[in-house]
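Objective 1.3, modelling of assemblies. Example input:
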Amino acid sequence: MAAAEQVPIPAIRRLSLYLRQLEAFQGAGRQTVSSRDLGHSLGVSDAQVRKDFGYFGQFGRPGVGYRVPELTERVRGILGTDKKTSVVLVGVGNLGRALIAYRGFAKRGFELVAALDDDPGKIGVRTPGPKPLVVRPVADIASVVRSHAVRVGLLAVPAPVAQQVAQLMVDSGIRGILNFAPVMLRLNGDVSVSSVDLAVHLEQLAFQVSACGA
Amino acid sequence: MAAAEQVPIPAIRRLSLYLRQLEAFQGAGRQTVSSRDLGHSLGVSDAQVRKDFGYFGQFGRPGVGYRVPELTERVRGILGTDKKTSVVLVGVGNLGRALIAYRGFAKRGFELVAALDDDPGKIGVRTPGPKPLVVRPVADIASVVRSHAVRVGLLAVPAPVAQQVAQLMVDSGIRGILNFAPVMLRLNGDVSVSSVDLAVHLEQLAFQVSACGA
DNA sequence: CTATGTGAACAGCTTCACAGCG
DNA sequence: CGCTGTGAAGCTGTTCACATAG
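Predicted structure (tokens):
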């Protein structure tokens, strides 16, 4: 059974990668795949692949491998990609607009249902993108979250206001935040936060490059 | 000494966070800080903070803490943030334009010296941003890298061409790639790759949220 | 008495290696 | 044979605890 198993966080991230690759295989009409092939195409060891699936049950057949359509469906079920997930965006600056226009979200079952900002010059503006949205004031967040049963939000506001806006999101019922502001969020309540800080990534790369060459 | 010490990769990421916080403290006129205070403001344990600095030498004074200005300078030196680092961008789509306009890079010592794309409709277009750039054809990359001594590049092209463009970057002399395309890059040569896949981040959040609530 | 620096204990994730099934 | 599933071993990074310095 899979119920209260202890799943390493990195395994969940890899599950997304497996799914992406499985969809590619399925699109190419492939029927089965071995842990070795799947792992090799993603730079992961075969043992790692089997372990990762092992956290959620038994999907493969010894001597054969994994059936691609079945495994794809099972992984979708685990990640919840089989259902549409509604998300909101707070902060319609440069990054926010790029997020609105990004097609990758819709491909993975995420639907952006609202774009919020408090800049008077932005409110009411119709944004381009897969699904046109009109920018609404941040104060509308509670009603948006309630009416669309939103659980996850994208936070792309300037650093100085990120903490305060994030708490508002949580208070409105959001349970997971993908944070692009370069600050550590301290939030009351049961929330998951995942931060993407572009400058930190760049600094790490720059360090590795110079450490390697030095 | 700090020479051939084995530094955990997560420690380098945290170093960026420490630096950000130290700059905030310095801006507030604070003279010293303890590992406990610095860590607490970032959600890191005090022991972790001391270990991390320990990989690079001894910076603090027992009974007092760390002197903020000195530590800031030392960390800048370690990360190379004290020198300007030139970077190039390949791929001027929605995300690429957001990256051009992003002010966070310049604040951390990174300078975008060129934006490259192969779409004829984009070449020659002047982009807005901190420093206006004219989009150039990707074929120019080798000369750009040579003339500006570029080591690090941002890759924001569509997934199907990412692999090929990445190898071109490496062949042109780039040593570190921040990859936004949702594919695993397999590159010949001594390169560091850091991938940011927004859909993967969202899927992980969605999983955590539903696993928690279920 | 406060706070650093660090070896030692610990935990979590990955790799290994092999039993067992097809 | 080939390949999965999985306990055991190994490794890497984090936490603990204390000697040491101010």
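Strands of chain B lie at 32-33, 66-67, 85-90, 110-116, 126-127, 133-134, 152-155, 176-179, 192-195.
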